[in-house]
Amino acid sequence: MASMFRSEEMCLTQLFLQVEAAYCCVAELGELGLVQFRDLNVNVNSFQRKFVNEVRRCESLERILRFLENEMENEIVIFKPEKYPETPLPREMIDLETVLEKLEGELQEANQNQQTLKQNFLELTELKHLLKKTQDFFETETNLPDDFFNEDTSGLLELRSTPAAVAAKLGFTAGVIKRERMVPFERLLWRACRGNIYLRYTEMDTALEDPITKEQMKKNVFIIFYQGEQLNQKIKKICDGFRATVYTCPESAAERREMADGVNTRIEDLNAVITQTESHRQRLLREAAANMWTWGIKVKKIKAIYHILNCCNIDVTQQCVIAEIWFPVADSGRIKRALQQGMERSGSTISPILTAVQSKMAPPTFNRTNKFTAGFQNIVDAYGVGSYREMNPAPYTIITFPFLFAVMFGDCGHGAVMLAFALWMVTNEKTLLAQKSDNEIWNTFFGGRYLILLMGIFSIYTGFIYNDCFSKSFNIFGSSWHTRPMFRNNTWNPHVLEANQVLQLDPAVPGVYSGNPYPFGIDPIWNIASNKLTFLNSYKMKMSVVMGITQMVFGVTLSLFNHIYFKKTINIVLQFIPEMIFILCLFGYLVFMVIFKWCRFDVHVSQKAPSILIHFINMFLFNYNDPTNGPLYPHQKEVQSFLVIFALIAVPWMLLFKPFILRANHRRAQHMLQTPAISENPAGDIEVEIIDSNHAKKAGQEDHSGDHGGHDDHDEEFNFGDMFVHQAIHTIEYCLGCISNTASYLRLWALSLAHAQLSEVLWTMVMNIGLKNSGWGGLIGVFIIFAIFAVLSVAILLVMEGLSAFLHALRLHWVEFQNKFYVGTGYKFSPFCFKSIIDGTAED
Question: Could you say which architecture CATH assigns to the domain 112-264?
């Protein structure tokens, strides 16, 4: 539980493994997913590492699997077991290679045979259509007049005889061409042959399938008559250029019929062979589909293991693999058991050895999450991964983020729609996870489903506080505003209520207000009052300031826990205390004045209440002689003067003392510098060694996380100028930030007002139109108007306004809250985990 509030304690350890056991031990650590390996061969080329050949073999297997998957696409469903297969042993890789290479060869052979058969089938089909169309052409030509050829061939023939006689003296070329190429083909023939040809073509009735691309092709059958060998050569070249297929066609009708019968017979035989070939191919694919998913997981695991082994060193004897690993101290027992299991699985008798390493490297940051907290941790990490062992803002963000969002998005109706959407995602999360969509927008929504769930719940809560549901109010407990018969002459009566559409509420009028507040939230009668905005603006603006200052003070308080953990007493005295004095004396006092005025002045004396804003301005000017703005309480001048002076003292307190004290400590450490004694731990006490080394690293890491740029006493050089400038920047940033951050929280008021006004405008301009009409026309109109109202509500108020409120809540946490205690200069713990690698969520 403590790891939620602070990152896990990490340890850097050297791991010694026997070469024969290294594969199985790394596999067990991958299944566990709690160890991050350091690359000890950064300066070694990727192609010169020890296990580069094994990685290449895995890549070859992945290529085969991709080939098989492409062949199965849209044809065969791949079977996926519920559990991942165990990591295969190295010797199983040879068997897997044999199976996949054999399957690839058989499938490629089947594809090649099928492609050849389909190519033959395509040619025979084209020839079949060509013979039929050619026969129809010759039969048509016998009925033409004698002068047909002379007129259409532009002087090609001088003879006047029958078409059959002319055809006997002419040569002809018949073939098939794609339909889209027919027009340029005809134009080029006419120009190249100067019109000395006779071309006829017709469209094929059925589309043909390309055996390579498997696309449907539409083709035309053509026949060209010519005279002379020179034209024959030109026609052949043009046909080749347009990729037209030319077929040998007999001249006599009997030979054409005999050839067509032979083609039909061959097509029937070819169909039977193609069917058998496709059946054989489908059988191969079905056999592969049964194990396809399992093979893919095994190859990914093998490749990941060899990639990790390439990051390790091998000693000179080639008998020991040396690795350096980061892992959480709390999981050291689980890691030892995993290594023991790997040793037993490999058959080795030499146990792995863990030795803690002393290092000045900053450890990685590891915050344990589950499916509920992961979304909130991602929000924090998007700002910056936390420094090692500093306070984690995520647990507090779980409450504050949806609440601040709901303050800007307070509406029961819109919150209920958002809650329903989130509940649908949560209840169907297993089904939706199994689909593994590639849509980034959907994945973003689904990853933050629990965040959206809380935002919906809090929006419903703040909607009840604002008494706002689609710009309308609930009257659950009855309004505290009423009229009495005895005041009929000077207050509201039924006639006044019916005759006036605009009513202004004044609680000071006797008999109108009962004096008892509405039990929960805002009285519903404010929804019809003309001074509704005046009342709500004052209420929401002051509420935003109170919430903002409270959250900032909480952030400064969290910095105290960082200073205590890292044992930086100087930061507590010279940084935390003046920061707290400054913010409490000025802005904490502002919150006090707001609450004091709420409690001190009621409706009867509210007209005489002084202005808090003018008091706050006069507080800095030491001006207490304003006759138009009386004091809030006795001795206000003395209290405010003391607070301003104390806040001004805190500024040099933060700015000057810390750099000089750090310089004095550094000089004292230089005089007292001695060789540190090296303590030796017992040989077998690995856990004690781990914890001791971790405390040493923790002390060194504090200079980067708790001190905001401070230096360790043992650093090579202490630069006083850099330290003073850094402290000056921090002081100026904090003092000015308290002012700007307080003003920034007014976005809670502004966004809440904007959302309420947009909702009211949408109801008035859209939904109100359908409700005004009566009769059957109005009933039908309500359905249409409601559809428009629903679409606009979802598109504008839920999506656009929701995204706007989300981004503003994000900014309030990143800039106004987290900068008070969170440095975020660490790097994320990226363990070697098979599950992350298979799911595609592993870090590079």
Answer: 2-Layer Sandwich (3.30)
